[in-house]
Amino acid sequence: MIGDIKLICLYGPESVGKTTLAKQLAAHYQTVFVHEVARDLITSNDLTLDDYVRIGHAQTEAVLKAVPQANRLLICDTDLITTALYSEIYLNDVPPVLAELEKAVPYDLYFLLNIDVPWVADGLRDLGHRREEIYERFKTALENRNVPYVDVSGTWAERWATVTAEIDRFLS
Q1: pTM of the model
Q2: Residue 56: exposed, middle, or buried by beta-carbon count in 10 A (0-12, 13-18, 19+)?
Q3: Counting CB atoms within 10 angstroms of each CB, which of 2, 59, 62, 65 has the fewest?
Q4: 41 phi and psi, to 5 degrees?
Q5: Would the pLDDT of 85 be above 90?
C-alpha cells in the first residue's frame, strides 16, 4: 500500500491475459492501471543488463506516478520480479538494482495467472515453447520471497470471477 492506495499485481509469464485483465479491472473498479512499460521501450528481446535497469527504473516510476490518480486500487500488469526473471532467462544475470527497485513498490495482492489459456504471438513474445518452465519460474520466485498469491486459472470468465471476488474481499 502506498498511502491509502492498495497495489494489485497481475503476475505471470507472457500471454496469460495480464494486460487485458488490468484494463477490465481498472474500468470495473473505476481506477487506473499501469501497463508493462517495457513494451514502450523495446522492439526485441535482445537486451543488455543496462536495458533491464532502464526498464526497472521506468516501471517503478510509472507505478509511483500513477498512485495519485488511483481510486482505492492501482492495478499493475507487471512488477520488478518479472523484470528480474526475464533478465535471468535471457541473460543469465540480474542487475542488483532490480532487487532494490522491487522493494520500492510494495504490492498488497498478487495474482499469478496460469498458462491454461492459448498462447498468442505478438512480435515480442518468444517463449511459448517454454511456457511450463517459465510459469514454474514465476511461481518459484514468489514462493522464494514468501509472497502470498492467488492462483488464477480457467476460462476468461472464471479468471474474472476469481480475481474480482478476491479484490472485493480484500477491499471489504
Answers
A1: 0.91
A2: buried
A3: 65
A4: -105, -20
A5: yes
